[in-house]
Prior knowledge:
The structure holds two protein chains of two kinds. By secondary structure, chain A is of the alpha/beta class. Chain A is built from ten helices and ten strands. Chain A has helices at residues 43-50, 73-80, 98-109, 114-127, 143-154, 173-190, 201-207, 225-229, 234-241, 257-261, and strands at residues 3-14, 17-28, 32-36, 58-63, 66-67, 83-86, 161-165, 193-198, 210-215, 218-223. In chain A, strands 6-7-8-3-9-10 form a six-stranded mixed β-sheet, with helices on both faces. A four-stranded antiparallel β-sheet of chain A has the order 2-1-4-5, with no helix packed on it. In chain A, helix 3 crosses helix 4 and helix 4 packs across helix 5. Chain B has one domain (38-262). Classes of the chains: A alpha/beta, B mainly alpha. The A-B interface holds A 48, 51, 53, 77-81, 83, 85, 87-89, 91-94, 104-105, 107-109, 150 and B 41, 125, 128-130, 132-140, 144.
Amino acid sequence: MDDVVEIRGLCLKRGQRTIFSNIDLTALRGKITAIMGPSGCGKTTLLRLIGGQLRPDSGTIAINGKLINTLSRAQLYQIRHGMGVLFQSAALFTNLSVFENVAFPLREHTQLSEFMIRDIVLIKLQSVGLRGAANLMPNQLSGGMARRVALARATALDPGLIMYDEPFTGLDPIALGVIVKLICDLNTALGITTILVSHDVQKVMQIANYIYLITDGKIIDQGTPQTLQDTQNPEARQFLQGLPDGVVPFHYPAIDYTEDLFY
Amino acid sequence: MLWIADQLVLLGQAVLNLVTNLGRSAIFLWNILYRKPHLKKGFPLLVEQIYFIGVLSLLIIMLSGLFMGLVVGLQGYSILDKFGASQQLGQLVALSVIRELGPVVTALLFAGRAGSALTAEIGLMKSTEQLASMEMMGVDPLQHVISPRFWAGCIAMPLLGTIFSTIAIFGGYLVGVVWLGLDSGAFLSVMQASVSFSSDILNGIIKNIVFGIVATWIAVFQGYDTVPTAQGVGRATTRTVVYSSLAILGLDFVLTAVMMRSW
Lengths: 263, 263
């Protein structure tokens, strides 16, 4: 089976607002699938749906053939052992050191000895270049370092699927380069299926195998980076080229300007 | 007429919200009780939380208890002396502290010191996505974060209440015997003769336990249910103190009314 994540006919509403309307999406095994779209379009919500933290109003979400929106809590927690998530805020446990943060999933889900846990944690921290920071606390880390530690923690159990929520936001160029390299390395070296949520067009075009563009709860375009560069879809072109005005207007809907000024 | 209808709608919404929140908090409590702490992994977490909630509250509880005892001793002496009954000071101090002041003041202090800290901590964990990341690692935050804090509060509160009452009685003794010159033997023997273990001390402990459960329940629920913003955490913390204080005072009346039958 090549599809690790398969979403069909996904619909989600919050009150009167439609978040997703009939979304079909597939993440192929061992590939980097990117989900792009403007801020507030529901990209993070989509990751929460895939992770089973939210349930859709209709449609199906399957991970390795298992419909996660029909699983019990225990089954869902079991599936999450094979899943890693890198949150935008890194979400490190602030009361634990870097070492203990990475060791956390190992202690919770395995019966490994302390020696084994120590070795695995050091290997994971070495892979993100932070073995020397093992004894630091999260408040002593920069944003980029915190995200690298979170990445080490997300991969501690060697997951088959890893999801990144805005991994490039708020990083300096060096930290950005490091994160891009790590995402690529994890994908190519370990064959981890990757779902990447971002609105950084340049970086996503550089590393993704397949891209979905979401706006207003719908997939407006999809394809490989090469095909999307030549897209004729005006909304997709506006987003990818970063044009301030177009199908998505510069101005928030309002009454006529002159009428408003001379009221 | 329209204004009255609007007010009725608002009242109806407020009642519905109240019932909904009560229902949600009851389900939340059930989920905490249902998820028994894991003995091997949960015990260290429980001990850690008893330290944070109980031990770190000791100073404020002991100081408050001492001052409360001093004040009750002083006030009681001035009133009893008018009737030539100053020898009964031991009884007055002991009964007022054991039956009422000890449990109520300890619970109010507990809500202000430990309850607000619990809400803020859990609320911040939620707003920084620590709870979400734990969930995505397949670790149940209710079991790992909420349950140890809840049980620690339930265990710490009766102990703090007992310490408060003991020190308050000592404060009354200091004022009555050391300062105002009452006979030490009379103070203690009157107290011993008038305080019953089953109807006074036990009832005081029952109040402590009930207040501990309610105050901790409110604190952890408000933290877990907080809107994950700085403002949301602030409001949740305020709600914890307000709701806990009202619940403690209201329950105190109910419990006292029930317990008076046996007095």
